[in-house]
Design goal:
Elements (H helix, E strand, L loop, with lengths): L3 E5 L4 H12 L3 E6 L4 H10 L3 E5 L5 H15 L4 E4 L14 H29 L4 E6 L3 H4 L5 H21 L4 E8 L12 H10 L8 H11 L11 E4 L6
Parallel strand pairs: 1-2, 1-4, 2-3, 4-5, 5-6, 6-7
The protein binds NADP nicotinamide-adenine-dinucleotide phosphate.
The site of NADP nicotinamide-adenine-dinucleotide phosphate has 27 residues, from helix 1.
């Protein structure tokens, strides 16, 4: 039987790569972001009824609740939920605006928690077997990075959330894990200066920044029966830079 997978922030970057990979393996997939993208529209044209795309703001709990309920109704079940949508405002804390702090807390942390809560509610009602939650963290959660303290706080919060939730819903057969990528070549890291980019590559044993393709295999694995005994874990994928 096919799985149904929900992904937040599937319009571009890592989220788009996850949507594409899970469609390729035959899942029914639903995703939301604030805006669409030509790449997502092309996938919708190709996969038709197996892909649901909506425009919602992760910072709006009612919108997220509606999205998850509509998807559960349409596909009849939710097997996997991947909380991926995030924003990063870079800057020293001393001059960071309240609006930037609020945006990161409400999208990255509260938005992910609400999204996962809605998915878990459905999973508990449906008594889904083999269900999983994966939250996308970052290596900065554990390692820190100047200019990313608030972003790092949201990601560290997500890791704590995943570990506690894993204990809470494990007895109901739902697994919860986090993936912590190193710097990736996406829009989110587009503001990195060439100097910072080459410094990161130099410090990385595998000699380069990551690509979404380097991360999606692990996400697909965690959302599969092959990971049936893995829960409460944070998997770092960073080319060895934090080793
Ligand atoms: N890139 C990196 O270096 C890196 C490193 C470690 C971890 N990560 C993590 O990996 C994940 C994916 O990042 P990425 O690099 O792929 O970022 P990205 O290219 O900027 O894509 C972010 C996605 O999230 C969506 N999004 C942002 N704010 C949203 C909101 N308020 N409501 C709904 N959707 C929203 C975006 O769509 P809209 O803008 O249209 O809403 C987009 O689809 C994030 O959790 C990020 O923290 C990234």
């Amino acid at each position: 039987m096919h799985s149904t997978s929900l992904i937040s922030g599937g319009s571009r970057g890592l989220g788009l790569a996850i949507v594409e990979r899970l469609l390729e393996r035959g899942d029914e997939v639903a995703t939301f972001s604030r805006s669409g993208s030509p790449a997502l529209a092309a996938l919708a044209a190709k996969h038709g009824h197996r892909l649901v795309v909506e425009q919602c703001d992760a910072a709006d709990p009612e919108a997220i609740r509606g999205f998850v309920e509509r998807v559960a109704k349409r596909f009849g079940r939710i097997d996997h939920c991947i909380a991926n949508a995030a924003v990063a405002h870079e800057g020293v804390l001393a001059t960071m605006a309240d609006s930037e702090i609020d945006a990161m807390l409400s999208v990255n942390l509260k938005g992910s928690i609400v999204f996962v809560r809605e998915a878990v509610r459905q999973m508990l009602v449906e008594r889904s077997t083999g269900a999983s939650i994966t939250v996308i963290s970052s290596v900065v959660a554990s390692r820190g990075s100047p200019g990313l303290s608030v972003y790092a706080a949201t990601k560290a919060g997500l890791e704590g959330f995943a570990k506690s939730l894993a204990r809470e819903v494990g007895p109901r057969g739902i697994r919860v894990n986090a993936i912590a990528p190193g710097f990736l070549e996406t829009d989110l890291s587009a503001s990195l200066s060439p100097e910072n980019r080459s410094r990161i590559a130099r410090r990385t044993p595998l000699g380069r920044l990551g690509l979404p393709a380097d991360i999606v295999g692990a996400i697909e694995f965690l959302a599969s029966p092959r990971a049936a005994f893995i829960t409460g874990q944070v998997l770092t994928i960073d080319g060895g830079s934090s080793a």
